[in-house]
Amino acid sequence: MVTPDKNQSSVVLFILLGFSDYPELQVPLFLLFFIVYAVAVVGNVGMIVVININPKLHTPMYFFLKHLSFVDFCYSTIATPKLLENLVVEDKSISIKGCITQFSIGIICVITEMGMLAVMAYDRFVAICYPLLYTISMSPRCCALLVTVAYSWGIISSIVLTYSLLVLSFCETKIINNFVCEYSVFLSASCSDKYFSEIMLFIFANFSAFCTLIIILTSYLFIFVTILKMHSATGRYKAFSTCASHLTAVTIFYGTIIFLYFIPNSKNPGLVVKVGSVFYIVVIPVLNPFIYSLRNNDVKETFKKIRDLKIISQ
What we know:
Strand order of the largest sheet: 2-1-3
Distance between the termini: 63 Å
């Protein structure tokens, strides 16, 4: 295991090129991403507020959704401001400490979101397959425990993966053809043995993705079997509609991850990878509040009441 050379690492910078290849698009992209980011912040914070103030939404599903909104807000906020800054400034550098900080917080958010999506799938499984046991199985204590496990695994994974980066040495300034600090950025910039870091990434990334996907797919397998056994068409529609929002969120989230990390690099031109990263970091956090709110009348009514109160106060 190689320890970092402090004298070298202290002066090494990463240059995040972002969309520098398209100077004519810098200002339009800044405005676009700023608007999307503002909507993501308002949407996710608004979702948290709405769930807190509406007693009808004090259910396990919306308890988990509140934490999903919090994670989306944190992840978008840790990465998007640097993207916006790089679109309007000449100096696109970021220190190694800054890059590692962005990465470590981002890992907490990504893996925690995987856990939240898995927990929400389990919640739908219990609600549809064992409705009579739902209140007992998804008690406040159980819900708090599931959320704690999701956060804890995200934090543990971040600590281990961050440590695996801190043992690397960085010998020169590295130009990165992206706008976010990903694990591959550090590996490509390192001039020391990467074996330990690569093994840790392989173990934690694949274990997290595999376990959460297994929980989600298994839950929905039982859900679909249960729905098909229902005799009432109305009952089948109602049961499926309760899962539609979560299924949409899962498809978008894991679809983007598979596109970015499981398709061979030779099939992903630089621009496509950056667009995919933008979708993952900027767009997904703004989609989730809309996916869940547009299908729920209680959420929409609460948003309207908040809007009406603001209009009256003015």
